[in-house]
């Protein structure tokens, strides 16, 4: 067999065509972009308008905290989405689950765009808002694992990091679109018009994106790993039970790896910086539109860093790439608020851009890293649940914690210490794991995959 053919081998030993691989990459990028656009539109609106529209009777400061709490509440339901998607993804296939999560996320997002405010229907408004956010959380909990496995399990062995970066860049692209559309609406619907109807347009746009994402994902072939598992009739009966019986500690360590990235990332994706920089009673009080454009610009640097990190991890290993990323992220954490607090939009963008380099390097290799940690038969459950738990420990309440810290101390230094601590936790968790770059992913290598990648743990 030629060297080129060897590079095109899927985890099951078949040769994937270039067209098939490009289609998988395109589908995972488009699908995750649509999902995370929906998710980030909510976070952006929570930082900009939801406190005023849905929680105003609680008072200005409390309304902001309650608004950010609704962002975090969805994370509590990510494990439910991960459990459901992991179970059915390991039982009936990756592709079907991906289509269902896309539809659920889009429907919830569009309904938020139609939701009456507190002034119209009273307490029912925030309650329905929370319910729809919960549905978004369930969808997000199931989405990531399926997209990751579709990308990585279709990839040649030597390009898993690069292929795995494709669903990862859907996150910064989703942030770019969400911030860009919000900024455009802030330009079109100025002042009270934005509060009245401008914020709704980005949510309603999700209806169009659902159809695009659905069409793209339906055209992608099922993961070759799952196809072989199904042909062998080796689907695990209760994959979640098997996961926690044999790999509970691994799930926790993998979750802490993501938590270190997610807590820092949710300073922008969770809407905190947008709220902090535009608060008319805050220390900066910048206009809404330029802040949103600065966040959109930082999404571009995040995208580039994520893609480069995925590519680099195929050359120097996932673990080494992560370590570089944690150091870069720590630098970004300590430079963020000094630049933001300068009161300049340009400095705010620079602070976010520096931060996103580290974020990209601690996110780009994650798809390949997670996929190589778990055995084929329980892989969907393993990556999904680790990701969901990491999101709870990391980003779920990061904006709420940051808001409470500033209100309690009167300084953003406390937020910097909090984010630095989360970064160090992510670094320590990474150091506990062996690098398994290139390990065979097919079901015929289940015994090798089942050996613990944790340093100091029994490997047999």
TrEMBL record:
Annotated Major facilitator superfamily (MFS) profile domain residues: 24-438
The keyword Ribonucleoprotein is assigned to this record: no
Identification of the protein by name: Inner membrane metabolite transport protein YhjE
Lineage, uppermost ranks: Bacteria, Bacillati, Actinomycetota, Actinomycetes, Micrococcales
One Gene Ontology term of the molecular function aspect: transmembrane transporter activity
UniProt topology in membrane: Multi-pass membrane protein
Entry-linked InterPro entries: MFS, MFS_dom, MFS_sugar_transport-like, MFS_trans_sf, Sugar_transporter_CS
SUPFAM superfamilies: MFS general substrate transporter
Residues spanning the membrane: 58-77, 97-121, 127-152, 173-191, 197-216, 248-273, 293-313, 320-339, 345-364, 385-406, 412-433
Gene3D superfamilies tied to this protein: MFS general substrate transporter like domains (1.20.1250.20)
Major location (coarse): membrane
Subcellular location(s) of the protein: Cell membrane
Protein keywords: Cell membrane, Membrane, Transmembrane, Transmembrane helix, Transport
Signal peptide: none
GO terms for cellular component: plasma membrane
Family matches, as CDD domains: MFS_ShiA_like
